Amino acid sequence: MSAAPSTAPLLDVRNVEKTFPGVRALTGVSFDVRAGEVHALLGENGAGKSTLIKIVSGVYQPDAGEILIDGRATRFASPEDAKRAGVATIYQELLLFPELTVAENIFLGHAPRAGGGRIDWRVMRAKAEALLASLEINDLAADQIVGALSVGHRQRVEILRALSHDARILIMDEPTAALTEGDVTRLFDIVGRLKARGVGIVYISHRLDELFEIADRVTVLRDGAYVGSRQVADTNAAELVQMMVGRRIENLFPKFAVPIGGPVLEARGLVCHPMTKDVSLTVRAGEIVGLAGLVGSGRSELAQVLFGITPAEHGDIQLAGKAVQIDSPERARARGIAYVPEDRGVQGLVRPMSVLHNFSLAALGALSRLGFIDRAAERRMAEAGVQRFSVKTSSVDEVAGRLSGGNQQKIVLGKWLANNPKLLILDEPTRGIDVGAKAEIHRLMCELAGEGVAILMISSELPEVLGMSDRVLVMREGRLVAEFDREHATSEAVGAAMMGSDATMERAA
Amino acid sequence: MSAIPITSAAGPRGGVLRRFASQEALLAVAVIGLAVIVGFVNPRFLAYRNLADILLGNAYIAIAAIGMSMVIVSGNIDISVGALIGVLATVSGSLAVAGAPTAVTWLAPLVLGVAVMAAQGVVVAYLRIPAIVVTLGMLSILKGGLISVTGGKWITDLPQSFHLADLNVLGVPMPVVIMVAATVLAALRMRYSPSGRAVYATGGNAEAARLCGVNPQRTVVMVFAIHGLFAGLATLVYATQLRVIQSTTPSGLELTIITASVVGGVSILGGVGTVVGSTLAAILIAEITSALVFINVSPYWTDALRGGLILVTVIADILRRQRRAARGWKK
Questions:
Q1: By C-alpha distance, which of A38, A161, A16 is closest to A88?
Q2: Is the pLDDT confidence value at A2 over 50?
Q3: Residue A254 falls inside a structural domain
């Protein structure tokens, strides 16, 4: 694919090991990146990807093994060392200063100087503009304030900052996780340009389809160990998934039919300015209803109306045939509604609390006798949850914030299920988690449906919606515009409804 | 699935170790260790009279620190409590001198304390004004108001029945009884009741707490109200020991109380800490102050030492967090 020069790789990691107290994070991992190559790192949550990139970027020091830059053994004592050697990392959480301009963010710490140590603003601006021009980014100006920019633009600023350090090795940790489709296309365009310049790119993503689009090689890690590397041209999704999880996943969406009972949720004419316009829907016991729609179509807002975060201004909600008023999350919870929000980091978890206390947080009322928590029952519940969700933790007394992202997500889900909800609203339940955890969550959804829980699932992944739903509702501009039963829900039909009748699907996912 | 669920297999032992390494255990060891060491240098330090003085003279700080700890755990702070205690003491003493029934003189600071703090809690929770701003304002109002109203006059000739602190229960002086009872009750509530858990959840992540059905606003108001109750109790213990109540606000009292909370292991960032820790820390600080006298160090060093203690604790806390971060604490 790429014209790899015959010289030593830009970055060569050999047999790296890293142990944290009680955890073997990496054992004998090797990995290399050549100039002008995109090398993807693939693995489930906790497979060791983050540890590996932290070693390469100087955050951690390896216990054993070597790192070679241009064929020379190197030791990074700090991230600064790595930066000096030309390794730049773009983390998921962008590290920018919102109050400063694009140019100031790019050159923070190494601004061009005029005489007497003063910052040469003119040169800085010119250099920033040159960088922008070099990637043909013409909708971003050097003097814009970063805080007002979209996520996609901010990410571009981070990339420019890396380039301003003459980075030759760029590590991108799930760069598309928070991007819109248009921004993803732009990012891939930029990645293409960087490749052409001879930058070596380490690309981490959970989205397999992306890897096939932009990566040249892929290395798979599992449980901290090296599983194998493949040329992307010579492999396929099934093989990579198998390498990641160590077994074949026969069916990514193991939806099985369960008897569907009476209506659990019946909502009529819900209105909540500005994004919920006259929405009526029904979800029955044992039924999984998929809510499809483009980003910004009002799906999450509808979920928030149903859960009482932004109570409906008009309309009626009936739960199990009884008219109810849902005017706060407290009330919603008491009525047996559970809501797993999209942004689990901010909305889902109390990080300083233990796994135990996070698990029980939504069920404290049920766990209490005479105003005190039944701690034995609480512990049983949390331990059952840890077991059921395969949460990797040393004990339920561990602080939740210390677990990996995927494990934190499992706790958020588990916490709600501990409450035995009748209606479960899931907002992007599998976004940003690895294939194995995804399959587990899908299996759990089926199990819950089997137990008679009504599930409303919001998902931007059409295959997930089509694979998991008994019925698909499509939202557009705050209204429900189409409804399909399982047989008639094809990607073409649902996609067309999402885009609007006259628009054609650009990408039938 | 490659994930291996490890449940309580390592739980009990890990739990015991953790308990040993906890801030409370550390403080308890420090309280006893310091007594032993200072007693070795000067045995008179261990005299019953001195140990009793340390406890009696500082029980009110420990009591106020309980409420303060709850406020800080909930993600807030209160710097008006020292001034409030001054005002409540004056109100209570004035009522006593004016001949109000003893019950009224004792109840007034409790009721007033709850009212003032709950009002601040409402402003913090519902108007979303940072607690430090609200309570700084209240500090000035109380301080200025008290001087203006009383003119700084001393309250003397308190009736004998006023002195609650002189009573004892089965030989245990009332201030110690109140301190222990308040600590135990508050600890039980914080640790084992849903509303206590709500305080930790609110301080740890108010948004997540809200989605779990906790009402963070109500929780904050409740925490401030309880803090007011403890401030009232602290006032009772403090004022009823005095023969003369100066109608001014004790300077720096809020800092001593906050120090006890922080040294007791309450994270200034919210979400972490216990009231047992803060009570032990209040005792430790009082003990250190007294020890200085017994080993012939100028009492002027007290403030510096107290400052040193708070810095050491906070630095230790931060270092512990950083070590965790190196082990993969996700932000």
A1: A161
A2: no
A3: no
- Determine contact: A347 vs chain B, CB below 8 A: yes
Helices (H), A246-361: 299-306, 329-334, 344-347, 355-360
- Chain A hits for B267, Cβ within 8 Å: 352
Q: Is the dihedral of CA A477, A483, A486, A489 positive or negative?
A: negative
> Residue A255: inside a domain, yes or no?
no
Of B129, B273, B278, residue with least CA distance to B200: B273
- At residue A396's C-alpha, the angle toward residues A393 and A400, to 5°, is 70
Confidence category of residue B21, pLDDT binned at 50, 70, 90: low
Residues A200 and A318 placed together within one structural domain of the fold: no
Q: pTM score, two decimals?
A: 0.70
User: How far away is chain B from the Cα of A352, in angstroms, using its nearest Cα?
Assistant: 6
Distance from CA of B3 to the nearest CA of A (A): 6
| DSSP 8-state secondary structure symbol assigned to residue A504 | P
Does some domain include residue B267?
A: yes
Interface touch B211/A309, C-beta < 8 Å = yes
Report residue B111 as tokens. Answer: 């009721």
Q: What is the CATH number of the domain that holds A163?
A: 3.40.50.300
Tell whether the model's pLDDT for residue A22 goes beyond 80: no
CB atoms within 10 A of CB A49: 25
Categorize the per-residue pLDDT at A166 as very low, low, confident or very high, splitting at 50, 70 and 90: confident
Total number of domains in chain A: 2
Q: Do A93 and B4 touch (CB under 8 A)?
A: no
Asked if the C-beta of A364 comes within 8 angstroms of chain B's C-beta atoms, the answer is yes
The answer as to whether B16 is a domain residue is: no
Q: Do A364 and B1 touch (CB under 8 A)?
A: no
Decide if the complex's ipTM is over 0.85: no
A-chain CB neighbours of B17 within 8 Å are none
> Does A308 reach chain B within 8 Å, measured CB to CB?
no
CB contact under 8 A, A222 and B2: yes
Q: Are residues A198 and A316 in the same domain?
A: no
3-state secondary structure of B147: helix
* Helix/strand/coil for A182: helix
Owning domain of residue B93: 40-315
Of the residues A213, A245, A277, the one at which a domain ends: A245
Domain limits for position A317: 263-499
A273 and A310 Cβ atoms separated by less than 8 Å: no
Q: How many domains does chain B have?
A: 1
Which one of A51, A391, A394 has the shortest CB-CB distance to B14?
Answer: A394
Sheet of strand A337-340: strand arrangement: A337-340, A423-427, A454-458, A288-293, A471-476, A479-485
pLDDT for residue A491 is more than 60? yes
Among chain A residues, the shortest Cα distance to B17 is held by A397
CATH code, domain carrying B255? 1.10.3470
Q: Are residues A172 and A277 in the same domain?
A: no
Q: Are residues A297 and A206 in the same domain?
A: no
Mean per-residue pLDDT, A109-127: 86
- Asked if B8 lies within 8 A of A371 by C-beta distance, the reply is no
Helices (H) and strands (E) in chain A, counts: 18, 22
Q: Which residues of B touch A91 (CB under 8 A)?
A: none
Instruction: Say if the Cβ atoms of A397 and B11 lie within 8 Å.
Output: yes
